[in-house]
Design a protein that fits this description.
This protein is an alpha/beta fold. It contains 22 helices and 13 strands. It is globular, with a radius of gyration of 26 Å. The mean pLDDT is about 95. Bound molecules: 6-O-phosphono-beta-D-fructofuranose (F6P). 6-O-phosphono-beta-D-fructofuranose binds next to loops. This is Glucose-6-phosphate isomerase.
Length: about 550
């Protein structure tokens, strides 16, 4: 598609937004009763509801035209077809191949990758079974009871988020109970030492997860964990074999660390770190759920893949999610998006999506290296409701900015406390309603009058007690939080990200922006050593280093 088409289509959106600006969401909801039919879709077990977006039929048409002008159908074909969509690293981005069924085919450079994907899944299955049936035991002969995943970024957030979300589906391991799952990412020694205080060296398995096996935080923590284990095994280094496995693409570095190839589960450079939970990076998930549960998680994602691959732009859930984000950002002045799961199980969904989206979409040049016009990725933030309601929702309701919200709720709970869940869901729906409709000053006055307030007080408080409303949100509902639906949900977000990147012509799959800080940290680490002389720095950095050298 040529650029002038893209630009023209995006200009149409600005006109549509100007046309809609005077209309409040209350009016939009009344004017278009067909919104519920048109703007709610059910796919792969998810109910996606865009009825509370500041869009009408004509604006949607403009968005679909923008997607077509940006060549979204072709971009999706390239992704699924294994083309090198990660142009700056010359790689495909085939997280979709990780969830293909055994009988499917998917070629990278003429080679079908599905057999190697399933070979690793089968190896994972054998290992998970051995841990669960007690064939695989710790150095003293006791069964494995706890798993500590050591990884960071994409090698942490995916399994951490899924393990929290699906803990109710955990199956018992050899010790009789489900495995105790722990995650250590931060290089702050506080994180690892806290976990080491809780686990028993004789029954703990460490999963060292790093795509590159060069990440400072992960390797430092892994070395410390290994020392701790050997110390508790009376100095016997052979204990490491039973207690350490690695997940990586870097076989030689794993061996150099002292983990043998039989204890390594590989993946490939065409899997991006933040898209890797479907690969062996998901080993903690498989250990917790059992392999059947992990395969169900993959199957749910595959179902979403098939929808996204085959649906037209108009019916494509990922395209619509992306177009809503584009609309809010380009025409509604949104700078961020709040992810608000009303479910404790989805506690780590906001940070997971934060990495997935901000690392993927935090780009300032197009695929061809020229600067983008306007903005790319939004800030993604959030927390579980109802905690958020009592913390930051005030700004969402009455602040001066319009912050689009993305609510996620689950119809059925796994716990057996009957009173809580309807309350939680009522809060979820009420917040979406309140953000959309608001409360006018007249309504605020009427409410205060009904409560017997005097006229002077009513006048003084009416402006403070009114809500502008007209604040957009998307509502995502799931019947249950099970492996399939969670897989579908995460795959949907992945595809949304890729569609947005294609609309902006940026690369969703590299992350050069994190390199500079990593390189400088290496230099600063040497400068903090009191035995050495600090190297040259700007005055601000030099002063910080100097203070730390004197106080550490
Ligand atoms: O810091 C960025 C990053 O490269 C992420 O993209 C990645 O998920 C994380 O570091 C961890 O990398 P690795 O899996 O290679 O340790």
């Amino acid at each position: 598609m040529n650029r002038s088409h893209r630009i023209a289509a995006r200009e149409v959106l600005q006109n549509e937004a100007r046309r809609l600006e005077p209309e409040h969401l209350r009016e939009l909801l009344e004017r278009e009763p067909e919104r519920v039919e048109r703007d709610v879709c059910e796919v792969a077990g998810l109910r996606l509801d865009w009825t509370r977006q500041r869009l009408d039929a004509r604006a949607w048409e403009g968005l679909f035209d923008a997607a077509r002008a940006a060549g979204i159908p072709a971009a999706l074909e390239h992704l699924f077809g294994g083309e090198r969509v990660n142009v700056t690293e010359g790689r495909a981005a085939l997280h979709t191949a990780l969830r293909l069924p055994r009988e499917a085919r998917c070629e990278v450079d003429g080679e079908d990758v599905v057999p190697v994907v399933h070979e690793v899944l089968d190896r994972m299955e054998a290992f998970v079974t051995a841990v669960h049936d007690g064939t695989h035991r710790g150095f003293s002969g006791r069964p494995i009871e706890a798993v500590v995943n050591i990884g960071i970024g994409g090698s942490d957030l995916g399994p951490r988020m899924v393990c929290r979300a699906l803990a109710d589906h955990a199956c018992p391991a050899a010790g009789g109970s489900p495995l105790d799952m722990h995650f250590v990412s931060n290089v702050d020694g506080e994180a690892l030492s806290r976990v080491l205080r809780e686990v028993d060296p004789e029954t703990t398995l460490f999963v060292v997860a790093s795509k590159t096996f060069t990440t400072q935080e992960t390797l430092t923590n892994a070395r410390a964990a290994r020392e701790w284990l050997v110390e508790h095994a009376a100095g016997d280094a052979s204990a490491v074999a039973a207690h350490f496995v690695a997940v990586s693409t870097a076989r030689e570095r794993v061996e150099a660390f002292g983990i043998s190839p039989e204890r390594m589960f590989g993946f490939w450079d065409w899997v991006g770190g933040r898209y890797s939970v479907w690969s062996a990076i998901g080993l903690p998930v498989a250990l917790m759920l059992g392999m059947e549960g992990f395969r169900r998680f993959l199957a749910g994602a595959h179902k979403m893949d098939e929808h996204v691959r085959t649906a037209t732009v108009e019916d494509n859930a990922a395209a619509r999610m992306a177009l809503v984000d584009l609309w809010n950002q380009d025409t509604q002045g949104a700078e961020s998006r709040a992810v608000l799961p009303y479910d404790e199980r989805l506690y780590f969904l906001p940070p997971y999506l934060q990495q997935a989206e901000m690392e993927s979409l935090g780009k300032r040049v197009r695929l061809d290296g020229t600067p983008v016009e306007g903005h790319t990725g939004a800030l993604v933030w959030g927390a579980v409701g109802t905690d958020g309601q009592h913390a930051f929702y005030q700004l969402l309701h009455q602040g001066t900015r319009r912050v689009p919200a993305e609510f996620v709720g689950v119809a059925r709970a796994e716990h057996d406390l009957p009173e809580q869940h309807p309350m939680l869901l009522a809060n979820l729906v009420a917040q979406a309603e309140a953000l959309a409709l608001g409360r006018s000053e007249d309504e605020a006055r009427a409410e205060m009058a009904a409560a017997g307030r005097d006229a002077a007080e009513i006048e003084a408080l009416a402006a403070h007690r009114s809500f502008p409303g007209d604040r957009p949100s998307t509502l995502i509902l799931l019947e249950d939080l099970d492996p399939e639906r969670l897989g579908a949900l995460i795959a949907l977000f992945e595809h949304k990200i890729y569609v947005l990147a294609s609309l902006w012509e940026i690369n969703a799959f590299d992350q050069w922006g994190v390199e500079l800080g990593k390189q400088l940290a290496g230099r600063v680490l040497a400068d903090l050593d009191p035995a050495g002389e600090p190297g040259p720095h700007d005055p601000a950095t030099a002063a910080s280093i100097d203070w730390l050298r004197r106080h550490m």
